[in-house]
Request: fold
Amino acid sequence: MAEFEQRDGESRLPFDPATVEADAGLIFIGAIRSPWKERKDCPKNLSQARERGKTAMIEINKPFRPGLDGLKEGNLAHILSWLDRAPRNLIAQRPRHLETARGTFALRSPVRPNPIGLHTVRLISVDIAAGLVEIDAIDLIDGTPVLDLKPYYPTTDSLHDRFDGESA
Amino acid sequence: MAEFEQRDGESRLPFDPATVEADAGLIFIGAIRSPWKERKDCPKNLSQARERGKTAMIEINKPFRPGLDGLKEGNLAHILSWLDRAPRNLIAQRPRHLETARGTFALRSPVRPNPIGLHTVRLISVDIAAGLVEIDAIDLIDGTPVLDLKPYYPTTDSLHDRFDGESA
Reply:
């Protein structure tokens, strides 16, 4: 995959998770419709995406649309995506903004053994019949598969307030 | 699966995601070591788990341990788990605490087309060589497979502060 070049200090797994026998199987429930058609145009994270001021759409495949019942305009939600263009075999890597390599699980890079993206967004509108959920912003390329939507609960999903003053 | 009985108002997918051909494959990077050995003992969410005052451990399989480099005591992180005991074919369901059924994507039930759990926790200790990460609490049964760890970033992962006063 030429768009992901290797850099100093990176280390690879002894196998490629993309080609070994899977431990479990995923099904795609829909796809992202995004203003970003190519990787070079895509914001690196949701802060950058929000600065661009463009909404995006989740298209949910027909059998899964009844699963949207109860989601409403203004709700906050997590989206889990499948980052299908990312290599899966780097276990330490050096993003452009870092001086040295770091373990994959200490980074939000799309390159990871299971390339599942986590995106916390605000719902702008929900059309259950059409299977369309408009969201305030997204840091994903158009067409990226979607695995799940979950409601966001401040009491369990936001942790830094709880632990402020306790952290080492 | 006798532990998940069906309730009024629930609706099923026309197929079972557990048995259709997968769109993508997951590999397990490790497993949870938890004080909760059976489903009946397991807290329903992380708030309940924290009230019990017991820590838990993530055991990372050997090839994936270099991926922990950069995670430190006190860090906040997301864990993605694979809820391997949950049925996958309910698209609307009625949890015990609700009067009426609701769409699966408006609930945090483990029963969903792709049963991926999202758990936001605080790291108590990180032993890269042993592949052991102690966490402040967990709402998972002992032995649950782990798919990913990601650092938690307040700027993008905590959204309710940003939208307070704007929500409908």
